[in-house]
Amino acid sequence: MNANTFTLGRALRLFIVSFGALIFLAPYVFMISTAGKAQSDIFSSSLNLIPQNLSYVANFTKALTRVSMTTLLWNGVVVCALIFVIQVVIAIPCAYAMAKLKFRAARVMMVLVMLGLLVPIHATALPIYVAFDRAALLNSYFALVAPFTISVFGIFLFLQFFRAMPDDLIHAARLDGMSEIGIIARVIVPNAWPAITAFAIFSVVAHWNDLYWPLIVISNQSYATPPLGLLYFRAAEAGDDYGALMAATLIITFPLVAAFLLAQKRFVEGITMTGLKG
Amino acid sequence: MSKLSLRNIHKAFGGNQILKGVSLDADENEFIALVGPSGCGKSTLLRILAGLESADGGEIVVGDRDLSPVPAADRNIAMVFQSYALYPHLTAAQNIAVPLVMRNLTRAQRLPLVGPLVPSQRKAIATIKREVRDMAVSLKIDHLMDRKPGQMSGGQRQRVALGRAMVRRPSVFLMDEPLSNLDANLRVHARGEIVELHRRAGVPTIYVTHDQAEALSMADRVAVMIGGALLQLASPQVIYDDPQHIEVAKFIGQPRINLFASQVAEDGMVAMGNTRLRPAETLTAGTPVTIGIRPEFVAVSRNSQHGLPAHIDRVEFLGSEIILYCRLDAVGENVIAKLSPSEGAGLAAGMPVRLQFDADRLFVFAEDGRRLPSLPVNADVALETAHG
Questions:
Q1: What is the mean pLDDT of chain B?
Q2: Which residue in the set A175, A182, A190 is minimally distant from B50, CB to CB?
Q3: Are B356 and B307 in contact (CB under 8 A)?
């Protein structure tokens, strides 16, 4: 069958797929549009996708000056990077041990990981908050990062990936004179990039967009993460300057969109390789 | 150089006894093939020797050193895996260099960024590069050095794996079915090369295979393992001509040895057709025994009056030889005979023939599988007694 023939079925499929894409893209497109509208334009009775008079510059200037956008973005980068790096440093050796080493507690650990996957952050939020409060750790990077450093999801994802790695590869490394740490650094990690990339996307997206936890532990603006910053922005502006708000949202979501587009191929690769679809 | 000896190695997985006290000695320069059906424990034994598994009991001695408590990384034992187990992210040259990098560079010298600052690192790396180069040239893979395993053919990967194993001059060399992923032509060619490499390296080599042709053609001595026990360790010729156990006789030889259930007669002899054999030990009459004869010692004739009457079921022409599948008229047992094309000319399925067994080549096995040494009694005497 020629893939280029334009049959009815193909047309129908394309239509459905395009329609779905349009629905998913619509809010983002509308956000881009609103970010360029003046106040009067937004509250006019007619709905226009293209702004009547472009006020991108005005809106972006407002967004960048009224809250310290650089602090927000910097906090977002620091928190996400710290969380991701520590998660990987803990999860990879842990998953390696569970996948490839034989020890008695492996089964118990597997059960614990499964249990860990079932417990949402909301269940443990209060005790952790109380503990941080007593330890005077609120309003710090530590409070933002520490609860997420051990990612059971990460352990689970790497575990699935490592199980598929041939045992002989690790045996060969051992015979070549590598220690267990050496095996992780020289054999496991270089071959696990697809899984690490996939996990990076999951982790960074989740923590960049997280509003729940920063809202609980942060009251000082200088530690605010981007979503929390947006919240302050809205509150400070009495919530009616939607043009500037959308401009700020655009700035904050842009790094993720760009990162995803760059890593798209690897991301899909990683997901299919770990067998974690959907 | 080093001698290798395994003493009474035991291993069980769960309640399952995989190795039942295996002992084996290899001289320096010796090539030993460990052969057996799948699941007989030969790969487990190899892994224990390499330190990848721990034995439940027993000793592993290389040179004068007991290796049992030594971790795999420090044993200086090299192994070629069935899957080759090359590092997929490294080029051929880097793959071969890994064991040298791990051994010849200090921990600090190996660090990225910091390593080049450590004194004498550059010199050590130059030495490694030279050794890798020499190894590549001797294996004729120097043109592949910049390729990654994914870009190489099976035969090329196998050479890189050999190079990685040999480059560090191990004290023992292990191979786990290294040829089983190659196509038939390449496999026969690679046999000769591996033997040659072994001769050059001059260290004891244990070669695990399930392919008896490989074992017999390559090894100085063949160790036949069946069901977790080492049944016989001897030169290929002795293994073939003088098997000490029925399982060895059954496993080695293509086509398979002919086996017939029989019993010890009243006079303590074992009879097969007109041939009578006297076991070295006296056995009570009626003791069940098994008689074996290899297909090439079964003579087939159309005109002779001697021998057991049979019919040909099937003829297989293999070029240099002919395999006959016959059925004995009297008892309905199947007998396989191997003939040269000239001997077998004109034979076809359905023909009546007479089969004669070479009396000197008959094996007698006890019920527990042990070989019972026995001598043929003069055929004339046997005939007389038969008639008398």
A1: 88
A2: A175
A3: yes
